[in-house]
Design goal:
The protein contains 5 helices and 11 strands. The protein is α/β, with parallel strands linked by helices. Strands 1-3-2-8-9-10-11 form a 7-stranded mixed sheet, sandwiched between helices. α2 crosses α3.
């Protein structure tokens, strides 16, 4: 396995596995409690970003806040997709739903655009457009929940709206909501994500 990571097997066969992707400065343990709360019976796969920014783990390099090293985004997204494929084979689990926060949401967005077969869906918390000219991806009917903050000082509203539009143009089933919040998560984020995940986990299990 090419990433430091945490894995927990699931005990509910109908629950879609979750891929947990932390924000800048997080680790493979940060989102595990969130994963357990959102889907108690699901298998959890949580890798640690391999890029270090002043000692803080990230999933790809950036030149400045909001300015990404897009060559590294592409490299790291493909590297992460390969790790997920290997993990699925090892643990015998289905394609996961990604739950990403901030930098983790951005690498999940890159996975959807570059390696869409990797994920069965995604919950993107405070995501931005990861690539200025993304390739056309086949996201037909893939469920994506985007939760943005109206007072977010890091993610411009038009950037988040553009990302949602890119996904929709690629055929995804996008639910984009703008909450009265900043960049940090709120109780509303958790409640919405839990309800959305319960609905879409059931529909994926039936399909």
């Amino acid at each position: 396995m090419s990433f430091v990571h945490h894995f927990e097997p699931g005990h509910d066969p109908t629950a879609t596995p979750l891929l947990l992707l932390h924000g800048t400065g997080g680790t493979e343990h940060d989102l595990v409690p969130l994963g357990r709360e959102l889907a108690p019976g699901a298998a959890l796969l949580s890798p640690r970003g391999k890029v270090s920014e002043n000692g803080m783990p990230r999933f790809f390099r950036r030149f400045a806040e909001g300015r990404f090293d897009e060559e590294d985004v592409i490299f790291r997204a493909n590297e992460l997709a390969d790790f997920i494929a290997a993990s699925r084979a090892t643990h015998r689990v289905a394609a996961p739903i990604a739950i990403g926060f901030s930098n983790g949401a951005n690498i999940a967005a890159a996975l959807l655009l570059l390696r869409p077969e990797t994920l069965s869906g995604a919950i993107l918390l405070r995501a931005m457009v990861p690539l200025s000219n993304p390739p056309k991806a086949d996201l037909t009917a893939k469920p994506i929940l985007m939760l943005s903050g109206r007072q977010d000082p890091i993610v411009p509203a038009d950037n988040a709206a553009r990302l949602a539009a890119i996904f929709i143009a690629d055929g995804a089933k996008v639910d984009h909501r703008v909450l009265p919040a900043g960049h940090n998560l709120s109780q509303a984020d958790l409640a919405i994500a839990k309800d959305w995940l319960a609905t879409h986990t059931i529909s994926l299990a039936r399909s």
